[in-house]
Amino acid sequence: MWSLEFILPVLLVILKGSLAQWTVWMPKDISTMRNSCVVIPCTFMYPSSVRPYGVHGIWYFGQPYPELYPPVVFKSRTEIVHESFKGRTKLLGDLKLRNCTLQISNIGMEHSGKYYFRADLGSSNVYTYPDFSEVKVLDQPIINVPEEVVSDSPLDVTCYVPDNCPDMTPEMKWFNIEGLENPEISSDYVEDSNTAVMAAVLSFTPSYFHNGKVLGCKVHYPNTSLSYERLISLDVKYAPREVEVNQSLEVMEGSTVYLSCTVDSNPPPRITWLQEDTLVWEETGQNSTLVLMEIQPSQEGLYTCIADNDYGSRNQSFYLAVKFPPREPSVNSSLTVLEGSSVVLHCSTEGNPVPTLTWFKDGALISNIVASDLSILEIPNISYEGDGEYRCLAENEHGRASSSVNITVEYAPVFLPESKCTLIRDGIQCECIASANPEPAIQFHLPDLNITINETESQFNYYSHTDGYMTTSMIKLKEKPSSGLHVLCTISNMYGTETVKLELQQEKKFILAVVIGAIGGVVVIAFIIAAVRYISHSNQKENVTGSASFSQQPENPPMLYSSVKHNLRKKVIKTELLGTKFNSILEEPYMGDESDYQNIGGLSESDQRHDDVNYASLDFSSSGRQAAEASAQTDSGSDYTEIKTK
Fold first, then answer.
1. What is the pLDDT, as a whole number, of residue 39?
2. Are strands 487-493 and 441-446 parallel, antiparallel or unpaired?
3. How far apart are CA 411 and CA 391, in angstroms?
4. Which residues contact 554 (CB under 8 A, 6 or more apart)?
5. How confident is the model at residue 551 (pLDDT cuts 50, 70, 90)?
6. Mean of per-residue pLDDT scores for the chain
7. Which residues of 149-167 are buried (b: 16+ CB within 10 A; e: fewer)?
8. Rounded to whole angstroms, what are the CA distances from 152 to 20, 174, 241?
9. Which of 59-68, 326-335, 403-412, 497-506 has the lowest mean pLDDT?
10. Mean per-residue pLDDT for 615-628?
11. How many CB atoms lie within 10 A of CB 81?
């Protein structure tokens, strides 16, 4: 504690050097700890013209005007003071020596305030000095922390306690300093305006993990129970240290995606979202969530979260992949090319993962499968067989899509081997079959007769039909020319003309077929005759047995019916071969027009009528045989004939 005996003489010398007026000196403010004491240094002066009759003094609390009855802290004439100061105050200075120093013991929080001194020199020489000393009563020490504490920068934290009580001296220490890197503690003693302050300085270098750490300073007065302490929390500023984001993602097109970014920094950073180099979102905080609704492939890319504050910045990136099925491939427009040309087809698409591309022609695979967004199909020297639909199929694990292009190949006419002349029932038929694009014109020429046949000629039953790129033209000749069969066929379109001689084909095979047919017909007729005779013989036996039974019956016996159904018709196939006619007779069920059949020569009209009878009820008794034959000849068109035995 500083010495009043040393300070006051100095102050008096200074005051005497100034003009002798009503003046006072005391510290403007002074502090102390609760329940301790405080000494307010005080020196006053009065005009030299004043002759005091005695020197007295009064200390007021709160205000200097007696008429307002402020609380009396100390009064030299009497011990009457305010109740709150009773037994707590005493004058340390000698008023005769103009020393008005006051001590307040066991001071409480309620004693914080302004203190005024009033000089009473007798008679009318009374004066209240307007200057005051403000006392601050503390219940804990003061800790001074720099306004800004930055990570990795040296820091001094100071704990202050007033030392303005001469009866006791405080002791100080820091606690909760575990975890600090190489902390150092030093003590200091500071005097300011005749007030004393003890200081304990804690020196260390804070780190980001010290942010929020609690430090404590404790003050203790030895030989007393007085103890005070104060806690502070460090607010350590540091740049963004960690930025945590999603791992790289794979999501389906159309889904909702949540992208999160969490940052460790103080103060909270400004968070910026970038897709590649494009700003997407920005906000301030320790974390941020970016929501992408119904995500599209265009939103695929590298996403970066940037965190920055006044002390630095940091960023973290990840890749967002958007999966989707292949888009409809883009292919060439439909093409029309000339045979022999080279054709290049392109197929491009998008998909994730990268789709496979495959080329098909008319449903058949024609290329290798490639995993790419572009496929090129090269067709060198295309032939007419390259005409058709080409389809590019794109597919991946999420779907497939395809597009088609039609290639039309134009080419000169090509004769097909099916072109020929053949014998038919009523003459010779010549066919000329060709493939061409555009459709060819076809005409026949008979050089021996100097005749040209085309679609304008109706004499030779000219017929033409086109199916796709195949054209078939046909003529019929009633007979083979005497000079031999010489038929030329000419086909032509804008790309070329070709003439071919049509040969008469399959003559030997045809003759063999006719002979085999004739022999087969004879065999069939013999079989039919044998079958008819067998049936007739069986019927005769049955009727002989039946006539014995009839003789025993009444005069009018019931009718008996025997039905024979003939559903076979005779068909004549006429074949003219080298001027000779062969008649082959085949019996088969009736299925066509009567014009397709003719009666077999050598059969009587009666036999023919028997053939037309489908059913007959016959009685073969001796008395009724002639009547039955007569009745059958009379009504050959009846389905049933009834013969009675008398």
1. 94
2. antiparallel
3. 23
4. none
5. very low
6. 80
7. bbbeeebebbbbbbbbbbe
8. 58, 21, 13
9. 497-506
10. 37
11. 19
Q: Which residue has the tokens 């020490």?
A: 141
Question: Six-digit token pair at 599?
Answer: 């009666």
Nearest-5° angle of CA 210, CA 216, CA 217? 135
The least confident of 364-373, 467-476, 500-509, 637-646 is 637-646
| Cα 57 from chain centre | 92
Interhelix angle 625-634/605-612, nearest 10 degrees: 90
Residue 218 one-letter amino acid: K
Quick one: what percent of the chain has pLDDT higher than 90? 59
State whether residue 254 is helix, strand or coil: coil
Q: What is the length of the chain?
A: 646
Rounded CA separation 153/132 (Å): 42
Supply 194's token pair. 């005749």
Strand arrangement, sheet containing 38-40: 38-40, 102-104, 89-91
Q: Half-sphere exposure of residue 252, counting CA atoms within 13 Å on the CB side?
A: 6
The pLDDT score that the predictor gives to residue 106 is 93
Closest among 161, 136, 149, 144 to 229, alpha carbons compared:
161
Cα 497 → chain centroid: 59
Judge contact between 294 and 259, C-beta under 8 A: no
7: phi then psi, degrees, rounded to nearest 5: -75, -45
Query: Tokens at residue 581, please?
Result: 């006619």
Token code pair at residue 82: 């305010």
pLDDT score recorded for residue 334 = 93
Cα pseudo-dihedral 290, 292, 298, 301, rounded to 10: 40
- Are 274 and 306 in contact by the 8 Å Cβ rule? The answer is yes
Strands in 276-311 per DSSP E: 278-284, 287-292, 301-309
DSSP letter at 372 equals S
d(CA 11, CA 92): 16
Distance CA 517, CA 494 (A): 48
Residues 6 or more apart whose CB falls under 8 angstroms from that of 117 comprise 24, 26, 42, 44, 57, 58, 59, 60, 100, 128, 129
pLDDT for 349 beyond 90: yes
Q: What is the 3-state secondary structure (H, E, C) of 492-509?
A: EECCEEEEEEECECCHHH
Name the pLDDT band for 5 (thresholds 50, 70, 90): very low
Contact between 367 and 359 under an 8 Å Cβ cutoff? The reply is: yes
Task: Enumerate residues 6+ apart whose C-beta is below 8 A from 482.
Answer: none
Q: Which residue has the higher pLDDT, 237 or 463?
A: 237
d(CA 385, CA 409): 8
Give the pLDDT band of residue 515 (cuts 50, 70, 90): low
- Cα distance between residue 331 and residue 413, in whole Å: 30
Neighbours of 581 (CB within 10 A): 8
Residue 517's pLDDT band, with cuts at 50, 70 and 90, is low
Distance CA 107, CA 385 (A): 117
For 221, the 3-state DSSP assignment is coil
Confidence of residue 483 (pLDDT cuts 50, 70, 90): low
| Separation of alpha carbons 50 and 45, rounded Å | 11
Q: What residue type is 301 in one-letter code?
A: G
Residue with tokens 């001469």: 166
pLDDT at 564: 33
Terminal CA-CA length for the chain: 180
The per-residue pLDDT for 50 is 85
